[in-house]
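Thread amino acids onto this structure.
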């Protein structure tokens, strides 16, 4: 495929059916407040399965287009550096080499730390990243990022460690503080077990070990405590009681620029 020219006259359509707006009128808050750029529907012959994910950080259900997108969203939920997520955030409208090009990215993320840190993410199966339409879409997002100061990412899941994925997915059940008894959380914090096995070997009066173990998993999801997430959890797996606020969830960064 020949090299693509620079995108020109980039505009964003934030709300379906409405006119696109120039980039000078676009703010991240407007992106997050707008409805999804397209509705996701199931239909006969569809190659992917739309899914709904409860994004714990902002306490809202988010609709995604495939299981691969749901995995990327789960990693963003686990990642302490990602604070907000918006699927199907907007439609990009531009011209490349004299042809009109449109594209709806998969995610728009807000990151902690530096004010104004945002990113646009496209999720794609590895077999589809070289297709001409997707190459044009990526170029469009790159040019948009350069103009807006946003990062650009292509995520395929190829670099995702499978053990890490299974561990994070297993911790999902313990992320909601409403399902963790306060007594169990207090017991876990007071006990500070060195390993997962210590939870059962040092019972706390009036609190079942299973509840304490759930509280420990809750702390691991929120990374108030940490563990080697890329290794299989066993009874002898050591626990680190010092949170690492700089931690970034492994495997979620495909090609962020």
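Threaded sequence (257 positions):
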């Amino acid at each position: 495929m020949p090299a693509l020219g620079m995108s020109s006259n980039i505009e964003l359509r934030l709300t379906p059916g409405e006119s696109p707006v120039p980039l000078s009128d676009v703010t991240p808050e407007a992106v997050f407040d707008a409805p999804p750029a397209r509705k996701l529907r199931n239909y006969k012959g569809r190659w992917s399965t739309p899914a709904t994910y409860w994004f714990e950080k902002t306490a809202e259900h988010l609709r995604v287009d495939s299981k691969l997108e749901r995995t990327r969203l789960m990693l963003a939920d686990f990642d302490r550096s990602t604070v907000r997520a918006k699927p199907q955030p907007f439609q990009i409208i531009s011209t490349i080499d004299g042809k009109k090009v449109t594209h709806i990215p998969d995610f728009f993320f807000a990151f902690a730390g530096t004010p104004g840190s945002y990113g646009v993410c496209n999720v794609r199966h590895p077999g589809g990243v070289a297709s001409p339409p997707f190459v044009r879409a990526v170029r469009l997002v790159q040019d948009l990022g350069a103009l807006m100061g946003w990062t650009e990412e292509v995520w395929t899941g190829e670099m995702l460690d499978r053990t890490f994925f299974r561990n994070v997915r297993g911790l999902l059940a313990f992320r909601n503080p409403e399902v963790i008894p306060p007594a169990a959380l207090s017991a876990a914090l007071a006990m500070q077990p060195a390993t997962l096995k210590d939870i059962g070997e040092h019972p706390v009066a009036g609190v079942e070990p299973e509840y304490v173990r759930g509280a420990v998993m809750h702390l691991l999801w929120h990374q108030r405590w940490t563990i080697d997430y890329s290794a299989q959890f066993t009874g002898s797996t050591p626990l680190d009681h010092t949170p690492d606020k700089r931690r970034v969830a492994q495997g979620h960064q495909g090609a962020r620029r």
